[in-house]
């Protein structure tokens, strides 16, 4: 029996690499990956040729240009252009080459800035987006609608999942362009090494956020991809085809900061600079649909932060800039 050939786009990223690890652990599939030097996902011709020549059975579309608030504010054109181009090329070429199963990975930023908490799937397109990451969010919304459109017109099985804030192995620990958890880990680690007596955290510490370990995200991705059509369709609707992925549990930024300080061994004081912006007061995903499909998270925030810090320590020479 031939092994199922699965293409993971974005296999070097945090989510893609976690999906690859878990797929390979299954041992019954053939995982196909290509580095940027081998396959330019921004090239329509290159992507089309790849699909025509490789007889792919399933696609995990984890490739994307991602970054924190600074990066989104600084490079909005690149964020909307590159993400639209990558997903357009992959989804359309998957279809034209006969691939029936595809999983598109989005982001919780698709929901309105002031969405009712916890955020349900039906909040999509009900109000304005957060301006700082609107180009990225619009690209992801387009990806959802593209999958829905190919399903409606061609009967494809293209599914979309929207993760909450992710962290873990292979995260981006850049001092300026990273998300909150890797930024905090690096800041507290370097403060400990420098013998600093105080670390200043932005904002009041009062906003609440939800975080999911990337290994849980990968497990949820594989679970949703392999649900039978009957089960999947019974728990989704045509206009609500995307599924939230998260823990359904949040914490204050203060609690997060204090936990990171403890895990990294920083013994100094923590001061919150309330003159800096807090952002939305709360961002929590409603994950009842995912639970009804038989999946729940398993990695607690503290345990996930511990393993992430261990990975950071073992790999910090790779991102010492």
UniProtKB/TrEMBL annotation:
The record marks 107, 109 as: Important for catalytic activity. Keywords: Isomerase, Multifunctional enzyme, NADP, Oxidoreductase. Substrate binds at residues 187, 202, 209, 278. Residues 6-230 form the NAD-dependent epimerase/dehydratase domain. The active site is at 136 (proton donor/acceptor). Its EC number is 1.1.1.271. Pfam families: Epimerase. InterPro entries: Epimerase_deHydtase (IPR001509), GDP_fucose/colitose_synth (IPR028614), NAD(P)-bd_dom_sf (IPR036291). It comes from the Bacteria. NADP(+) binds at residues 10-16, 105-108, 140, 163-166, 179. It catalyses: GDP-beta-L-fucose + NADP(+) = GDP-4-dehydro-alpha-D-rhamnose + NADPH + H(+). Pathway: Nucleotide-sugar biosynthesis; GDP-L-fucose biosynthesis via de novo pathway; GDP-L-fucose from GDP-alpha-D-mannose: step 2/2. Catalyzes the two-step NADP-dependent conversion of GDP-4-dehydro-6-deoxy-D-mannose to GDP-fucose, involving an epimerase and a reductase reaction. Belongs to the NAD(P)-dependent epimerase/dehydratase family. Fucose synthase subfamily. This is GDP-L-fucose synthase. It comes from Pseudoalteromonas fuliginea.
